[in-house]
Amino acid sequence: MEYQRLIVCHECDLLFRKPRSVGGCRATCSRCGATLTSLPGAGLSLDWICAVTLAALITFCIAQSFAVIELHANGMTSEATLFGAVHTLWSGNMRVVATVVFCASILFPLVELFALLYVLVPLRLGKLPPRFNRMLRVVQLVRPWGMVEVFMLGVLVTIVKMVSIAEVVAGPGLFALGALTVMLGIVASFDPSRLWTVRDEIVLSQMAGVRWSRVSSGRGRFTRLLRMRKAGSLPAITAKRAGLVGCHACGLVQTRVERQIHQHCSRCQHVLHERRPESLTRTVSLLLSAGFAYVPANLLPIMHASSLGRQEDDTILRGVAYFWSSGDWPLAIVIFVASVLVPMLKLVVLTLLTVAARRSSRWRARERASLYRIVERIGRWSMLDVFVVALTVTLVHFGSFAVITAGPAALAFAAVVILTMLASHQFDPRLIWDNADAAQSPTPTMNDGALAAPLHTNRNS
């Protein structure tokens, strides 16, 4: 069997046969439940993604050019734009927080859109753009850090917060930001590793008439593993057991070269790791740093308010109590969950996963894998309070009448969010399954009608 016909689950290392097309459906691993990437025909077509990406770029420019919110109080007017919020934080000696807000709401989404268009447009014309692999890696690197949807929720929270003290007017930028949020959600559903299949087709068409053959030394070992599986002596065929390794960037399955520390993918040149080096050590270090930052993030003031000579400091918990006592309990719950509960749960869950992996635990591997995916998905939403602070500081700037500035907790809270996200990225979920009990290996199943049975059930291999 040629390895081009295989795919590997990046979360549990299980091997599958690659179908010719999944017909636009989403395929999930039958063992851990993770979404499988690099499948041909998954998601929307390239024409749709190219069109939505171009529309998102145009909408992004509109959202940047107009005010998102306008505030009217006692004859004075102020407005907030995306770049204006960054400028206010920067001029208020909160340059680290300003940099975080700028990167999450402006720079990274813009880089992703430009990089995608740079790759998609030539591919639709049947051409291969220069530095294809590097641009595709840029998309994969910046995508987890773009948080326009979290910024949009922060805008809505700020509107509710400001209604009680002034007249709030929605600017054109707010509607553009809402449309941009939807478009970026569609773009985020597109798996960029799919483009490698398109790239290979273009390369093969340019090399028509040339016959290529590939000999791999791992075939014999893989065949032996198939026979062991049929005999019932092996629970599941993983890439590690088969002497293979899957590229996390392009999805190509290839032979693992022994005694080579820094093996690179033969297609995209991305570094290959059978297991991420020092995964647990790095995760623990980042978790300890996040835990230390979590205490001042909740105890120190996140905003300083000055109105007619009166000074007042607000912490995150005091803000939750204010919304609860004023009757806005749904908003209080949203802020409490996003700013207090979610960071705490991330710390607890990642600590549990790290300890279990360190002890080679076999306890509830699938449930632990589900917890890991939940942490990965909700990690960005903890940035909500930072965005609310940025917008509030930008809006409430009326000289001696009322001024709000960011407090030290904003920096500590941004550090907690970034450190926990880095910790979840450093943790290798394949460690969960390395010592999983053989009894936990599932029977072959079909997922959404999109994926063939697991590789070890294929009698024609």
Labels describing this entry:
461 residues; mainly alpha; Butyryl-CoA Dehydrogenase, subunit A, domain 3; 3-stranded antiparallel beta sheet; 9% strand
Give a verbal description of the structure.
This protein starts with 5 loop residues before the first strand and ends in a 28-residue tail after the last helix. It contains 15 helices and 10 strands. The protein is mostly helical and 461 residues long. It is globular and about 70 Å long. It has a domain of 162 residues: Butyryl-CoA Dehydrogenase, subunit A, domain 3 (Up-down Bundle). Helices cover 52% and strands 9% of the residues. Helix 5 crosses helix 13, helix 10 runs antiparallel to helix 11 and helix 11 crosses helix 12. The C terminus is likely disordered. The strands form 4 sheets. A 3-stranded antiparallel β-sheet has the order 4-3-5.
The largest sheet, given as strand count, sense and whether it forms a barrel, is:
3 strands, antiparallel
Shape verdict: globular
Mean pLDDT: 81
Kindly report how far apart the N and C termini lie.
6 Å
Considering DSSP H and I runs of 4 or more, what fraction of the residues is helical? 40-55%
Radius of gyration (Å): 25 Å
Q: What is the count of DSSP helices, taking H or I runs of 4+ residues? A: 15
Query: What order do the strands of the largest sheet run in, or round the barrel if closed?
Result: 4-3-5
Please identify the top-level CATH class of the domain at 278-439.
Mainly Alpha
CATH overall fold name of the domain at 278-439: Butyryl-CoA Dehydrogenase, subunit A, domain 3
How many distinct beta strands?
10
List SSEs in N-to-C order.
Answer: EEHEEHHHHEHHHEEHEEHHHHEHH
| CATH structural architecture of the domain at 278-439 | Up-down Bundle
Measured by DSSP, the beta-strand proportion falls in 5-15%
Q: Helix- and strand-based class? A: mainly alpha
Low-pLDDT segments: 209-234, 437-461
